[in-house]
């Protein structure tokens, strides 16, 4: 490489990075367990990248299709019955006992999912979101991993989770920062401050707000905010980054 | 499948034959790299095994689409970064101050030098945690893995200019964090 690799890093920091750029040796136990689980999952899914329905025996495909159709038909019929009862019955409606819906539906091969990208690049930009693999227990039991979403969907009876709402607001703000939409990011942090003045993510909120102000070229306000942040959280690990972003001298 | 963790197996080059064999060779050779990358990306030690599993399950699925003319590590790192992001979303662990357990193994024979190397690695890990995650990914690939920016941009799916921009800011953030951490340790 003709140009210097670390033009902006001081010599001592550069040396530090070079010394730390070693590859950690993973525990053999962890390596073995991970491989065993990957092999178990891969074994149920076939060879790498396999999962194309055209490679399956026709009978298996037909059986799976019939199974899925049955599940949908059963669900539809049950929904119709429930709707009929709701429409006809006086309030309050006494709901019939609902048997739990079987979750172990036949596994759809990974490659057959329509959202599976086909090229390396597109994969890297957006790898599949629902690819959460089963953890230890499921693999030990030989269960086929169902295509479950990466986060559990709360049921209607769940109590509202203020932490989730708090995080969601900051996720909105972060997304806006990614789009370089400082105004929207700042609005989201203001909403967060209004709803959660003493929330668990105050430091993150302030960090995002500073970045939003810088995006909006309101640097004086950003510096003032960093000053306040420094006063409230003098030991925060986010502080150096904030000071750097705001073009301020680091805390002595 | 055969037993998987012999050092000889880890050292051998990837097999070009299609199917599990070449995936297995990549797993053997690059597991430590993915393991290390997950730590640099802030994944908690106790969760690294599960996240590593997710990484290699995804890698296994997409292995046939891997362009073998490209270096493997940036490609793997992109999976690791995505899985680490999913992990963060699911667990919402914020800034984790990483301890010294499982510090990188040192090849030096001197105990003092090994300790110094481990301390440096710990310092770098802590400083990395203060760098915004998008910028951290670029910083790790460029400064620690010595990957060319063109390949970084391609692997992470970002424009080249964005890659350089993130690297520039990440360097500033990282250097500032190192200075602060050194001051906290009483170093000049």
Structure write-up:
- The complex is a heterodimer of chains A (252) and B (188).
- Chain A is mostly helical.
- Among the domains of chain A are: 53-140, no CATH class; 162-245.
- Helix content of chain A is 54%, strand content 0%.
- Chain A has helices spanning 11-20, 28-45, 58-88, 120-125, 136-140, 162-178, 182-195, 202-215, 219-232, 239-245.
- Chain A is flat.
- Chain B has two domains: 1-92, Orthogonal Bundle (Rna Polymerase Sigma Factor, Chain: A); 109-188, Winged helix-like DNA-binding domain superfamily/Winged helix DNA-binding domain (Arc Repressor Mutant, subunit A).
- The radius of gyration of chain B is 17 Å and the shape is globular.
- Mean pLDDT of chain B is 78; it is low at 1-20 and 93-109.
- Chains A and B meet through helix 1, helix 2, helix 4, helix 6 and helix 10 of A and helix 2, helix 3, helix 4, helix 5 and helix 6 of B.
Helix/strand layout:
The complex is a heterodimer of chains A (252) and B (188).
Chain A: H1 11-20, H2 28-45, H3 58-88, H4 120-125, H5 136-140, H6 162-178, H7 182-195, H8 202-215, H9 219-232, H10 239-245
Helix pairs in contact in A: 6-7, 6-8, 7-8, 8-9
Chain B: H1 7-11, H2 20-40, H3 45-62, H4 72-91, H5 111-129, H6 133-144, H7 149-156, H8 160-184
Helix pairs in contact in B: 2-3, 2-4, 3-4, 4-7, 5-8, 6-8, 7-8
């Amino acid at each position: 490489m003709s140009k210097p690799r670390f033009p902006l890093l001081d010599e001592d920091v550069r040396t530090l990075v070079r010394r730390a750029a070693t590859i950690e040796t993973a525990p053999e136990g962890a390596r073995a367990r991970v491989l065993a689980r990957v092999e178990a999952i891969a074994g149920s899914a076939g060879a790498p990248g396999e999962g194309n329905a055209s490679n399956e025996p026709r009978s298996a495909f037909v059986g799976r299709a019939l199974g899925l159709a049955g599940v949908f038909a059963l669900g539809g019929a049950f929904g119709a019955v429930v709707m009929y009862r709701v429409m006809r019955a006086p309030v309050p409606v006494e709901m019939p006992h609902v048997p739990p819906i079987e979750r172990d539906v036949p596994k759809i091969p990974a490659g057959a999912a329509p959202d599976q990208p086909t090229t390396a690049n597109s994969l890297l930009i957006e790898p599949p979101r629902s690819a959460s693999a089963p953890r230890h227990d499921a693999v030990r039991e030989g269960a086929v991993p169902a295509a479950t979403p990466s986060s559990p969907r709360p049921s209607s009876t769940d109590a509202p989770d203020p932490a989730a709402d708090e995080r969601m607001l900051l996720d909105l703000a972060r997304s806006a920062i990614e789009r370089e939409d400082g105004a929207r990011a700042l609005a989201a942090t203001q909403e967060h401050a209004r709803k959660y003045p003493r929330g668990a993510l105050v430091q993150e909120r302030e960090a995002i707000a500073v970045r939003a102000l810088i995006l909006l070229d309101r640097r004086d306000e950003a510096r003032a905010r960093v000053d306040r942040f420094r006063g409230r959280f003098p030991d925060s690990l986010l502080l150096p980054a904030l000071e750097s972003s705001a073009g301020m001298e680091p805390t002595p | 499948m055969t037993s998987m963790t012999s050092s000889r197996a880890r050292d051998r080059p990837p097999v070009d034959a299609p199917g599990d064999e070449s995936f297995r060779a990549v797993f053997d050779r690059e597991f430590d790299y993915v393991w290390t990358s997950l730590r640099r990306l802030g994944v908690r030690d106790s969760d690294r095994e599960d996240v590593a599993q997710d990484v290699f399950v995804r890698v296994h699925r997409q292995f046939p689409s891997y362009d073998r003319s490209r270096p493997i590590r940036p490609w793997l790192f992109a999976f690791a970064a995505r899985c680490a992001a999913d992990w963060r979303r699911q667990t919402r662990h914020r800034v984790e101050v990483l301890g010294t357990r499982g510090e990188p193994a040192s090849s030096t024979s001197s105990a003092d030098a090994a300790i110094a190397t481990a301390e440096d690695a710990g310092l770098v890990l802590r400083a990395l945690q203060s760098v915004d995650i998008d910028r951290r990914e670029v910083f790790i690939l460029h400064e620690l893995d010595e990957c060319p920016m063109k390949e970084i941009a391609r692997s992470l799916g970002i424009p080249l200019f964005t890659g350089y921009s993130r690297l520039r800011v990440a360097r500033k953030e990282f250097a500032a964090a190192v200075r602060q951490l050194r001051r906290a340790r009483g170093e000049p």
